[in-house]
Design a protein that fits this description.
The protein has 4 helices and no strands. With 91 residues, it is mainly alpha-helical. It has a domain at 22-69. The longest helix has 19 residues, at 54-72. The radius of gyration is 22 Å and the shape is flat.
Length: 91
């Protein structure tokens, strides 16, 4: 048996016991997300992770970028406040 097969079996056991998704792809995604959170750019992450295509790095780090953008988002209308049903808006 190859070491890759043994590694895959070990990761499956860990996933079963912990309920945490555990496969080589999740490790690569975590690696990319951690580097992105530390401020590295996509090209540096691509180089360090050995990706040949920048699109994979962008796919793996997209969730981080979305979370970051939500920090700066401010809604135009406060949907949590009560609105007077008889009120009218004037422009």
């Amino acid at each position: 048996m190859s070491y890759l097969h043994n590694l895959a079996k070990m990761l499956k056991k860990v996933e079963k016991k912990t309920g945490i998704k555990c496969n080589p792809r999740s490790f690569r995604r975590t690696f990319a997300m951690t580097l992105r959170a530390r401020g590295l750019g996509a090209l540096a992450i691509m180089d360090l992770g050995g990706w040949e295509d920048i699109r994979m790095v962008l796919r793996y780090t997209r969730a981080y970028d979305k979370r970051q953008s939500k920090k700066f988002y401010k809604p135009i209308i406060d949907t949590n406040s009560e609105v007077d049903s008889g009120a009218t808006m004037s422009f």
